[in-house]
Amino acid sequence: MASDNIMVIHDPELLAQGERVLGPEFKAMHERVMVVTALTSRLNVLPFDDETGKAALLEQILGRPLPPRLTIYPPFYTDNGLNIDLADRVFINQGCTLLDYAGIQLGNGVMIGPKATLITGGHPVDPEERRKFLTGAPIVVEDNVWIGAGAMILPGVRIGRDAVIAAGAIVADDVPANSLVTGSKATVRRSW
After folding, report:
1. Residue 103 belongs to what H/E stretch?
2. Buried b (16+ CB within 10 A) or exposed e, 78-114
3. Active-site position among 27, 32, 64, 123
4. Is 30 annotated as catalytic?
5. Mean of the per-residue pLDDT values for the chain?
6. What is the pLDDT of residues 76-113, one digit of tens each?
7. pLDDT value at 3 more than 60
8. Are 154 and 27 in contact (CB under 8 A)?
């Protein structure tokens, strides 16, 4: 497997005996997912104008005080929350999902359109290893990036400053600064 961030899903000794028991690291992650799922469920049913309630729940989800001028419009989904690093003036529109197992960093002034998805985790391609391991790589989105509606950012991607990700783009490779990427496998269409 070619990944620096690998987590064993099942206890290898018990799995060898035919028992599917979660390994300690995966079990701890699973427990955090259960807590955050409950928190996001509460967040996503609050009245839209309940700023105090939203802020309190988001601080629990992220595990820290909110950065200045952060805007997150529910519904919002994440699986951990503690590995999301948000800078000043980040805007996240409705229906976004940030799966942050390996870490997501959003720079100053990042704007994310509705239903965008950022995913840092995955599984090995090899069928023998697929159910044994969780793999991951961080996503870094530099300052002033705009991610369009329904875009999907995959593990290990770095998006350069001032770049624009078109609506519906699937981004599997790094994006240079000052670039527009489009398509079902995002490719650079224009640079400035």
Report:
1. none
2. bbbbebbbbbebbbbbebbbbbbbbbbbbbbbbbbbe
3. 123
4. no
5. 92
6. 999 999 999 999 999 999 999 999 999 999 999 999 99
7. no
8. no
